[in-house]
Fold:
Amino acid sequence: MLLGNTAAFAHEGEPNMAFIWRDGKIVVDTMRQGRALGDHTAFVINFTDSLTPYRMGDAGFTGSGFDQGGIISYQIESTLLKWSETESLWLQEGFDEQLVISRLSVENTVTDKTGTGLQGFITNLTTSSSFEAHPVFKIQKTDESLPDDGAYMVFINILGFDETGEAILYKPSVPFALTFHINAQAGFDKLALSAALKVVPEIELNDYNRMDALFDWAESQFIELFPHTADSRFLFGYYARCYNNSVCLGSKDGKIYTTGGVFGGITEHGPINAFYESAGL
Structure:
């Protein structure tokens, strides 16, 4: 095990986005290469290559202690954000840049409108409990022209599935930010980046531990609807649990949904925050 951990951290390039599976959860930034962003961690990925200033394959994910095998993945938890120097805030819409994340044959595109919930492959743990993987990150405009100098951000998490890709082996980590710094035209230096990282984006992120606690509460309070305990999983973009009476309970985009059984088709029940309040969570 010690040798496996050492190999996982023999990493070239920055940042080394390092994780450990410990005590039933994924611990983020064990190599302390992230920066504080409010209650979250932000990893800064600098686009510094003069030949490909908008493409980076040097930053990487490393992990150790993932002793249940399976497939390690990332999940997009926000749309793309862009820093506005004039407004001193992270824009959530109204710009043309997009982020493309590539790993082997899988490519995900994140814009100011789309991308939340997409999952991407990191590695398959067949013979080791540790890993190192280097996805390629690319910033470009939607027409594939050059992006503006500046800072761009997206929140993701790390999680893991069994070989079927359905059962969750490693529950999602807390969300963390990937912050992309472009200064190809000398228009956005490190001081400007530091100013941007002092401002926390005003977005709401999923808390899967809290969701699980809410689902547990629902199972204890509404036995006729949710007659037994069930494991959570991702289904068509929902974080959900399904039961032997054909009912499924889930959350997506900050709302609670049910489907099947007495509910028939997909039914929205309102904001998840209202249910957190009812459950005392």
